[in-house]
Amino acid sequence: MDNRVTELEVKLAFVEDTVNGLSSADADISQRLAALERAMRALHSDLTSLRAGIGGDPHAEPPPPHY
């Protein structure tokens, strides 16, 4: 009987260690995902600004230097 209890205690310790590791990994992934979402929003904003600058009125641009 003691042997079975010891086996169960070892298995429980392994399961607890695995759960703690997964919890830590989940927290790390959540932080990385949040950082990636912030970066994506910043890139989207930059791209929107660039598109607005490129798509301006072509007549408002100065003529090329050779004119």
Task: Please explain how this structure is put together.
The protein has 67 residues and is an all-alpha fold. It has one helix at residues 2-54. 0% of the residues are buried. The mean pLDDT is 90.
Number of strands: 0
Number of helices: 1
CA distance, first residue to last residue: 98 Å
Judging from the principal axes of the Cα atoms, what is the shape? rod-shaped
Largest sheet: none
- What is the chain-wise order of helices and strands? H
What's the average pLDDT? 90
Strand content: under 5%
Low-confidence stretches: none
Helix/strand-derived class? mainly alpha
Helix content range: over 70%
What Rg do the Cα atoms give?
Answer: 29 Å
What's the arrangement of secondary structure elements?
Layout: H1 2-54
List key phrases describing it.
67 residues, mainly alpha, 1 helix, rod-shaped
Task: Summarize the model shown.
With 67 residues, this protein is mainly alpha-helical. 79% of the residues lie in helices and 0% in strands.
